[in-house]
Amino acid sequence: MQILAISGSLRAASANTNLLKAAAAMAPEEVTLSLYDGLGDLPPFNPDVDKDPLHAAVAEFRSQLRQSAGVIFSTPEYAHGVPGVLKNALDWVVASGELYNKPVALFSASPRAGYAQASLVETLTAMSARVVPQACIVVPLLGKNLREDEIAAEPDLSRAVRSALKAFARATSIHSDVTRRTFLEHEEPVGYER
Protein backbone atom coordinates (compact mmCIF):
# COMPACT_ATOMS: atom_id res chain seq x y z
CA MET A 1 0.00 0.00 0.00
CA GLN A 2 1.44 3.35 -1.07
CA ILE A 3 0.98 6.28 1.35
CA LEU A 4 2.13 9.83 0.60
CA ALA A 5 3.46 11.93 3.48
CA ILE A 6 3.37 15.72 3.16
CA SER A 7 5.12 18.09 5.56
CA GLY A 8 3.82 21.65 5.70
CA SER A 9 7.32 22.95 6.44
CA LEU A 10 10.15 23.75 4.06
CA ARG A 11 12.72 24.03 6.88
CA ALA A 12 15.61 21.59 6.59
CA ALA A 13 15.45 20.82 10.32
CA SER A 14 11.65 20.71 10.53
CA ALA A 15 10.29 18.63 13.41
CA ASN A 16 7.22 17.82 11.28
CA THR A 17 9.37 16.57 8.41
CA ASN A 18 11.49 14.51 10.81
CA LEU A 19 8.30 13.06 12.29
CA LEU A 20 7.20 11.92 8.82
CA LYS A 21 10.66 10.50 8.06
CA ALA A 22 10.49 8.54 11.32
CA ALA A 23 7.01 7.33 10.37
CA ALA A 24 8.37 6.12 7.03
CA ALA A 25 11.01 4.10 8.86
CA MET A 26 8.41 2.63 11.24
CA ALA A 27 5.68 1.91 8.67
CA PRO A 28 4.06 -1.53 8.81
CA GLU A 29 5.46 -4.10 6.39
CA GLU A 30 2.55 -3.74 3.95
CA VAL A 31 2.92 0.05 3.78
CA THR A 32 5.36 2.12 1.75
CA LEU A 33 5.35 5.68 3.07
CA SER A 34 6.97 8.19 0.69
CA LEU A 35 7.79 11.76 1.68
CA TYR A 36 6.69 14.35 -0.87
CA ASP A 37 9.53 16.85 -1.32
CA GLY A 38 8.16 19.17 -4.00
CA LEU A 39 6.10 21.60 -1.92
CA GLY A 40 8.51 24.46 -2.53
CA ASP A 41 8.52 23.81 -6.30
CA LEU A 42 4.80 24.40 -6.78
CA PRO A 43 4.01 27.78 -8.35
CA PRO A 44 1.46 30.07 -6.69
CA PHE A 45 -2.00 28.75 -7.50
CA ASN A 46 -3.74 30.56 -10.34
CA PRO A 47 -6.92 29.10 -11.89
CA ASP A 48 -6.01 30.78 -15.19
CA VAL A 49 -2.97 28.51 -15.61
CA ASP A 50 -4.62 25.33 -14.30
CA LYS A 51 -4.79 23.81 -17.77
CA ASP A 52 -2.68 21.71 -20.12
CA PRO A 53 0.19 21.76 -20.34
CA LEU A 54 0.41 21.82 -16.56
CA HIS A 55 3.46 23.14 -14.74
CA ALA A 56 5.71 20.07 -14.24
CA ALA A 57 5.66 20.35 -10.43
CA VAL A 58 1.85 20.47 -10.37
CA ALA A 59 1.56 17.47 -12.70
CA GLU A 60 4.00 15.50 -10.51
CA PHE A 61 2.17 16.44 -7.31
CA ARG A 62 -1.18 15.37 -8.72
CA SER A 63 0.33 12.13 -10.03
CA GLN A 64 1.80 11.23 -6.62
CA LEU A 65 -1.55 11.92 -4.96
CA ARG A 66 -3.42 9.76 -7.50
CA GLN A 67 -1.00 6.86 -6.95
CA SER A 68 -1.35 6.95 -3.17
CA ALA A 69 -3.96 5.01 -1.22
CA GLY A 70 -3.89 7.69 1.48
CA VAL A 71 -2.07 10.83 2.62
CA ILE A 72 -0.52 11.80 5.95
CA PHE A 73 -0.02 15.51 6.61
CA SER A 74 2.21 16.95 9.33
CA THR A 75 2.39 20.69 9.59
CA PRO A 76 3.54 23.52 11.83
CA GLU A 77 1.25 26.41 12.67
CA TYR A 78 1.92 29.89 11.33
CA ALA A 79 -0.23 32.79 12.60
CA HIS A 80 -3.00 30.39 13.71
CA GLY A 81 -3.15 28.67 10.32
CA VAL A 82 -1.39 26.29 7.98
CA PRO A 83 1.74 27.54 6.22
CA GLY A 84 1.07 29.23 2.88
CA VAL A 85 3.04 26.60 0.93
CA LEU A 86 0.76 23.82 2.17
CA LYS A 87 -2.43 25.78 1.50
CA ASN A 88 -1.07 26.59 -1.97
CA ALA A 89 -0.49 22.88 -2.65
CA LEU A 90 -4.02 22.05 -1.56
CA ASP A 91 -5.42 24.82 -3.77
CA TRP A 92 -3.82 23.08 -6.77
CA VAL A 93 -5.93 19.96 -6.19
CA VAL A 94 -9.31 21.43 -5.21
CA ALA A 95 -10.78 21.26 -8.71
CA SER A 96 -8.78 18.28 -9.99
CA GLY A 97 -10.05 16.11 -7.11
CA GLU A 98 -7.04 13.95 -6.18
CA LEU A 99 -8.06 14.10 -2.51
CA TYR A 100 -11.75 13.37 -3.12
CA ASN A 101 -12.79 10.59 -0.71
CA LYS A 102 -9.12 9.77 -0.06
CA PRO A 103 -8.20 8.73 3.50
CA VAL A 104 -6.01 11.29 5.25
CA ALA A 105 -4.35 11.45 8.67
CA LEU A 106 -2.97 14.46 10.48
CA PHE A 107 0.24 14.26 12.48
CA SER A 108 1.60 17.17 14.47
CA ALA A 109 4.94 17.72 16.15
CA SER A 110 3.52 20.29 18.58
CA PRO A 111 0.55 20.39 20.95
CA ARG A 112 0.43 24.14 20.25
CA ALA A 113 -0.60 23.67 16.59
CA GLY A 114 -4.32 23.30 17.30
CA TYR A 115 -5.41 26.17 15.05
CA ALA A 116 -3.43 24.79 12.12
CA GLN A 117 -4.89 21.31 12.65
CA ALA A 118 -8.44 22.70 12.80
CA SER A 119 -7.81 24.80 9.69
CA LEU A 120 -6.39 21.80 7.83
CA VAL A 121 -9.36 19.62 8.82
CA GLU A 122 -11.73 22.34 7.57
CA THR A 123 -9.92 22.60 4.22
CA LEU A 124 -9.67 18.83 3.72
CA THR A 125 -13.32 18.35 4.64
CA ALA A 126 -14.33 21.01 2.10
CA MET A 127 -12.28 19.06 -0.47
CA SER A 128 -14.17 15.84 0.45
CA ALA A 129 -11.08 14.07 1.80
CA ARG A 130 -11.83 11.46 4.47
CA VAL A 131 -10.04 12.30 7.73
CA VAL A 132 -9.31 9.16 9.79
CA PRO A 133 -9.55 10.44 13.42
CA GLN A 134 -7.99 7.34 15.03
CA ALA A 135 -4.84 7.92 12.94
CA CYS A 136 -4.44 11.61 13.88
CA ILE A 137 -1.80 12.21 16.55
CA VAL A 138 0.21 14.90 18.28
CA VAL A 139 3.79 13.85 19.00
CA PRO A 140 5.41 16.39 21.36
CA LEU A 141 8.69 17.17 19.59
CA LEU A 142 8.73 20.94 20.03
CA GLY A 143 12.14 22.07 21.26
CA LYS A 144 13.61 18.55 21.33
CA ASN A 145 15.44 18.76 17.96
CA LEU A 146 15.21 14.99 17.45
CA ARG A 147 16.28 13.39 14.20
CA GLU A 148 14.05 10.72 12.66
CA ASP A 149 16.21 7.87 14.05
CA GLU A 150 15.98 9.38 17.55
CA ILE A 151 12.19 9.65 17.28
CA ALA A 152 12.00 6.00 16.21
CA ALA A 153 14.27 4.98 19.11
CA GLU A 154 12.21 6.76 21.79
CA PRO A 155 9.68 4.20 23.12
CA ASP A 156 6.71 6.50 23.89
CA LEU A 157 7.05 8.49 20.67
CA SER A 158 7.56 5.46 18.45
CA ARG A 159 4.64 3.64 20.08
CA ALA A 160 2.29 6.54 19.27
CA VAL A 161 3.52 6.74 15.66
CA ARG A 162 3.31 2.97 15.08
CA SER A 163 -0.20 2.85 16.53
CA ALA A 164 -1.38 5.71 14.29
CA LEU A 165 0.21 4.10 11.23
CA LYS A 166 -1.49 0.77 11.93
CA ALA A 167 -4.85 2.50 12.38
CA PHE A 168 -4.36 4.44 9.15
CA ALA A 169 -3.27 1.36 7.19
CA ARG A 170 -6.30 -0.53 8.48
CA ALA A 171 -8.73 2.27 7.59
CA THR A 172 -7.11 2.82 4.20
CA SER A 173 -7.20 -0.88 3.39
CA ILE A 174 -10.90 -1.10 4.29
CA HIS A 175 -11.57 2.03 2.22
CA SER A 176 -9.67 0.59 -0.76
CA ASP A 177 -11.59 -2.71 -0.57
CA VAL A 178 -14.96 -0.93 -0.43
CA THR A 179 -13.99 1.39 -3.29
CA ARG A 180 -12.80 -1.55 -5.40
CA ARG A 181 -16.00 -3.55 -4.76
CA THR A 182 -18.17 -0.53 -5.54
CA PHE A 183 -16.28 0.03 -8.79
CA LEU A 184 -16.58 -3.62 -9.81
CA GLU A 185 -20.30 -3.70 -9.00
CA HIS A 186 -21.01 -0.67 -11.17
CA GLU A 187 -18.64 -1.15 -14.06
CA GLU A 188 -19.18 -3.44 -16.99
CA PRO A 189 -16.14 -5.18 -18.48
CA VAL A 190 -14.77 -3.69 -21.69
CA GLY A 191 -16.48 -5.31 -24.67
CA TYR A 192 -19.42 -6.51 -22.58
CA GLU A 193 -22.61 -6.80 -24.59
CA ARG A 194 -26.14 -7.29 -23.30
Output the keywords.
disordered C terminus, globular, 6-stranded parallel beta sheet, 43% helix, 194 residues, Rossmann fold, alpha/beta
Question: What this model shows, in words?
Answer:
With 194 residues, the protein is α/β, with parallel strands linked by helices. It has one domain: Flavodoxin domain (Rossmann fold, 3-Layer(aba) Sandwich). The chain has 6 helices and 6 strands, in the order βαβαβαβαββαα. The radius of gyration is 17 Å and the shape is globular. The chain starts with a strand and ends in an 8-residue tail after the last helix. Residues 186-194 have low confidence and may be disordered.
Helix/strand/pairing category: alpha/beta
CATH superfamily: Flavodoxin domain
Average pLDDT across residues?
A: 91
Number of strands: 6
For the record, what CATH class applies? Alpha Beta
Query: Kindly, what is the distance between the CA atoms of the first and last residues, rounded to a whole number of angstroms?
Result: 36 Å
Helix content bin: 40-55%
List low-confidence stretches: 186-194
Largest sheet: 6 strands, parallel
Number of helices: 6
